[in-house]
Amino acid sequence: MNLSLTVASFTLCTGLVGFIAWWRTRGMDNASSQDYFLAGRKLPWIQVAGALLLTNLSTEQLIGLNGAASIHGAVVMAWEVVPVFALIAMAWYFLPRYWSGNITTVPQFLEQRFDATSRRIMGIVFIVAIALNILPFVLYSGGVAMSTIFHVHTQLGISERASFQLMAWSIGVIGTCYVLFGGMKAVALSDTLYGAGLLACGLLIPVLALYKLGDGDFFAGLTRVLHHQAAKVDPVGGPRSNVPFDTLFTGMLFINLFYWCTNQMIVQRSFGAKSFAEAQKGILATAGLKLLGPFFLVIPGIIAAEMFGPAAIGNGDLAYSLLVDAVLPPYLVGLFAAVFLGSVISAFNGGLHSVSTMFSVDLYRGWLRPGASDHEMVRAGKVFSVAIVVVSILTSSLLGGSSEGIFTMMKQVMSAFKLPLLAVVLVGMLSRKVPAWAANCSMILGVLTSIMLNCLWGDGFLGFRLNVSSTHIHWLHLAALNTLLLCGFMLVVGKVAPVSPATTVSLRAGVAPVPVVDLTPWSGLRVASTTVGVAAVVLYFALWRLAHSG
User: Fold this and answer.
1) Residues 6+ apart with CB under 8 A from 29
2) What is the Cα–Cα distance from 311 to 293, expressed in whole angstroms?
3) CA pair distance 70, 315, nearest whole angstrom
4) Domain with CATH 1.20.1730.10 in the chain
5) Which of 17, 70, 71, 472 is the most exposed place for a label (fewest CB within 10 A)?
6) Which residues are within 8 A (CB) of 156 and not within 5 positions of it... i.e. 6 or more apart?
7) Considering only 247-256, 261-270, 312-321, 388-397, which range has the smallest mean pLDDT?
8) Do the Cβ atoms of 336 and 241 come closer than 8 Å?
């Protein structure tokens, strides 16, 4: 590897993106909470799409999902295709209800529907989940990738553990700088630039890998994969697979509805759009881009299984790193390093910015210091961000070693903490009769019931399982069951002991009046929704046919 060329191209690309982000945001007054947290509500649809995609797409996807594919095959592409339908639901159903409330955070929606306690509980759960579940996984997977692909430990003459810690701190510091000094506008702009580069580089890797497998013949490489890995190319999973096909309609759907429709670190990007129609356009553009995901988040993992075998890739977490290291020309290593690191930073600062927003809006001004000025809110969010970075870096050092790989472990933890929040938001939109106490109990007890269900009938939770039953239910089915039980509990309470009209009027009186918002929809919404929905089904069918063609 030509180190000087790699360093030069890496520095040039990273510096250029940073300079553009600074130049385009240098005149913004980030002392204003709307400018800092929502980019002044001026984002065009392409930046909304870029921010949505890059906040979602990082090394926990590139490393984790490709690693899962190397072991379990294309069944894991459900994590990239089912989101299409969740994004359609976001554009049609969730977004109008958020925008009509003129909110900055999802917890604010719960205050408008239930009470201030609901807002605080949701804000705290979100912050804890992002700090302990999302950000550490981003840092861990980024450290693994940078250490493996770019040989940081050998180039610097340090241990692998030391190189991982160095990369984790570097990612944390750079991401924090974007959040502290640039606000959401800088985050969204850098996401768009890095997103374009990541798509190009990501799609290039499987092409180069198939050429290498076929000794210079792309189609020979493809034929070899289809011949030897046909079972892994099949996207329809059986009952004992990592993602059984029937789970696409239960837990897989619920998790994606949470992630794309109620997850603050995702939906906040759409809140920053310059109009309701632009937000819908950006969301549907993201749905279309997600359909490219299997080609660089799943297929490379299957190719790695053919190229290296299970002994080399272990639990799968090394699959993508080994593949990139084997096929990427030296003159592209620096560019790929910059784009790769950019994707990590984008996901990291996306989560960090959401934590900063929820702490400032929902907890600081909404609870701890109700009379705080915009300047005080922004300052409090920045200080809190630094504390969260330290916690996330320390937590990331505890990860690794799961037999299922980091991606599945991350999703299991997310379902326990966050699907109860989805249940409360759904019920809040469906019924006005459910009292606040029922929603508040569901957000807290829902985490415990999720863990209990997995310990009793699933694979356990973080390695702990109660061996009291021989019955086994897939964790995705259990995630859906827990969500439905919580929804049923709240709706029954709303039927038996509904909230009184007087209480509803009192609650509304305590919430600031909501200004009228223009909800004129995007004219192409129906056509775009139909197109991406049909394309998702066709993609599944095409891969299934390809797997069974021989």
Assistant:
1) 35
2) 26
3) 9
4) 3-401+522-547
5) 472
6) 163, 166
7) 312-321
8) no
pTM of the entire predicted model: 0.83
Q: Are 232 and 65 in contact (CB under 8 A)?
A: no
- Is the CB of residue 298 less than 8 Å from the CB of residue 65? yes
CA atoms within 13 A on the CB side of 77: 29
Q: What is the DSSP string of 375-429?
A: HHHHHHHHHHHHHHHHHHHHHHTT----TT-HHHHHHHHHHHHHHHHHHHHHHHH
Residue 267 near residue 32, CB atoms below 8 Å? no
Residues 6+ positions from 54 with CB-CB distance below 8 Å:
191, 192, 194, 195, 198, 342, 343, 346, 347, 350
Residue-wise pLDDT for 119-173, tens only, equals 999 989 888 888 877 888 888 777 777 776 667 778 778 877 777 778 777 777 7
3-state SS class at 461: strand
To 5 degrees, how large is the angle CA 155–CA 157–CA 158? 115
What count of residues does the chain have? Answer: 550
Distances (CA, A) of 341 to 265, 346, 478: 19, 9, 35
Could you tell me which residue, 36 or 441, shows the higher pLDDT? 441
The topology under which CATH files domain 3-401+522-547 is Sodium/glucose cotransporter (1.20.1730)
How would you label 394-424 residue by residue, b for 16+ Cβ within 10 Å and e otherwise? ebbeebbebebbbbbbbbbbbbbbbbbbbbb
The span from the CA of 15 to the CA of 338, in Å, is 9
CA–CA dist 273, 521 (Å, integer): 13
**Distance of alpha carbon 304 from alpha carbon 548, whole angstroms:** 21
Q: How far apart are the first and last CA of the chain?
A: 40
